[in-house]
Design a protein that fits this description.
The chain has one domain. About 40% of the residues lie in helices and about 20% in strands. The chain contains six helices and nine strands. A seven-stranded mixed beta sheet has the order 1-9-6-2-5-3-4, sandwiched between helices. It has a two-stranded antiparallel sheet with strand order 7-8. Strand 7 and strand 8 form a beta hairpin. The N and C termini lie far apart (about 50 Å).
């Protein structure tokens, strides 16, 4: 009963904080050359670091994006929060039941949905990409796309991922990477190469967003 109460409390507290702060953000979106044309492009295999899950939940809301979420306590309250913002939880974990999880995500892509991975979750190591998106992109033909959302002012939590909660009215910049297609039946060496490319994309969009977030609202901000 205590755990049920905690789930209820954390879910509603998380929802209210995101719902109240999200609309105040001064958000800009920047695309690399070769990036998808819009946020609702389908299907895609999205990847992002766990530390920007707060602003990502608000920015990508109501698009029916499928998100992999574990059956752990953390995964349960995260899943409940994101469902309130129009995401669809797919049960599974990159560390446990990975095959079942990828099969579930594959079915969603085959039905035309976009899926998303907090790619260094659920417990790290921080900013190290896991191979799930590469395997999924290779088996479905959907392109991999990475993004990062930087905020100019925020509170950094004392958690493994150093998650950031934006302060109200902060500038925020989302940088979206070019699409990367993974050929079917790629060998292990090629899959490792594409995982390296995904890691590089994640690092590149993060560096761009953090370097340029202070320019949001100014003519100096490079859009492409």
């Amino acid at each position: 009963m205590w755990q049920r109460f905690l789930l209820w409390l954390i879910t509603w507290a998380g929802f209210l904080v995101i719902r109240l702060i999200g609309p105040t953000l001064r958000l800009a979106v920047s695309f690399e050359d070769g990036a998808p044309a819009s946020l609702d492009t389908r299907p895609m295999v999205l990847s992002f670091w766990h530390d920007c899950i707060f602003p990502a939940t608000y920015v990508w809301r109501n698009l029916q994006i499928r998100v992999l979420s574990s059956d752990s306590f953390d995964g349960e309250y995260t899943g409940r929060i994101i469902r309130k913002f129009g995401f669809v939880k797919v049960r599974g974990s990159s560390s446990r039941g990975a095959v079942r999880a990828l099969l579930g995500m594959r079915r969603e892509i085959e039905q035309g949905a976009t899926v998303a991975f907090t790619i260094d979750g659920p417990k790290g190591p921080r900013h190290v990409a896991k191979p799930g998106p590469v395997l999924l992109a290779g088996s479905t033909g959907a392109p991999m796309v990475a993004f990062h959302i930087a905020v100019q002012h925020g509170w950094t939590l004392n958690t493994w991922d150093r998650s950031v909660i934006p302060k109200p009215f902060s500038r925020a910049l989302m940088r979206i990477s070019k699409q990367v297609s993974v050929p079917a039946h790629s060998g292990e060496a090629r899959r490792d190469a594409y995982l390296g490319e995904l890691q590089a994309s994640l690092e590149r969009v993060r560096a761009f967003a953090e370097a340029n977030v202070a320019k949001v609202g100014n003519a100096e901000l490079p859009v492409r």
